[in-house]
């Protein structure tokens, strides 16, 4: 239902060692960070290795492995997180096709859902 709202429009930015986008969690109740199993990113059809992705919320940054054992913080519904991707050489200015998939562990579901969004964002 909120899958098409995961990637925040016009949020692609260059960083010192790659790029970042803003993303939302599509689950209406929000989740503790340890309940977010994975945040997968691909750019222009190329998958980004898990170890090259980190998430920043309210000024704190976690690798995906660190999020697995973060029991004291959460990602609230509608809250924008910064997903940072390390990428040698960064991205060239212009349009890039970004795909983002978030895998969440939700206590009352008998399966682990993965929600996906894809957008073409412009790096200026």
General description of the model:
Belongs to the C-glycoside deglycosidase beta subunit family. Residues 2-108 form the C-glycoside deglycosidase beta subunit domain. With 124 residues, the chain is mainly beta. It has a single domain (3-123), classed as Immunoglobulin-like. Helices cover 3% and strands 49% of the residues. The protein has one helix spanning 64-67, and strands at residues 13-15, 18-24, 31-32, 36-43, 46-47, 53-57, 60-63, 74-75, 80-86, 94-104, 114-123. The strands form 3 sheets. A 5-stranded antiparallel β-sheet has the order 1-2-9-6-7. Strands 5-4-10-11 form a 4-stranded antiparallel β-sheet, with no helix packed on it. Strands 3-8 form a two-stranded antiparallel sheet. The protein is globular and about 45 Å long.
Q: Low-confidence segments, ≥5 residues, pLDDT <50?
A: none
Estimated radius of gyration: 14 Å
What class would the helix/strand composition place it in?
A: mainly beta
Number of domains: 1
Query: How many strands in all?
Result: 11
The best one-word shape is: globular
Query: Number of helical runs?
Result: 1
In which order are the strands of the major sheet placed? 1-2-9-6-7
CATH architecture: Sandwich
CATH topology: Immunoglobulin-like
Roughly what percent helix? under 10%
Mean pLDDT: 95
Q: Could you tell me how far the N terminus lies from the C terminus, measured between alpha carbons in angstroms?
A: 30 Å
């Amino acid at each position: 239902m909120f899958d098409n709202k995961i990637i925040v429009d016009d949020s692609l930015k260059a960083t010192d060692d790659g790029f970042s986008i803003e993303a939302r969690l599509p689950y209406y109740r929000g989740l503790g960070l340890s309940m977010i199993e994975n945040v997968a990113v691909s750019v222009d059809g190329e998958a980004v290795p898990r170890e090259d992705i980190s998430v920043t919320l309210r000024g704190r940054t976690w690798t995906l492995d660190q999020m697995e054992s973060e029991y004291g913080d959460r990602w609230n519904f509608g809250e924008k997180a910064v997903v940072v991707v390390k990428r040698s050489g960064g991205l060239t200015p212009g349009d890039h096709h970004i795909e983002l998939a978030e895998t969440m562990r939700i206590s009352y579901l008998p399966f682990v859902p993965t929600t996906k969004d894809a957008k073409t964002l412009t790096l200026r």
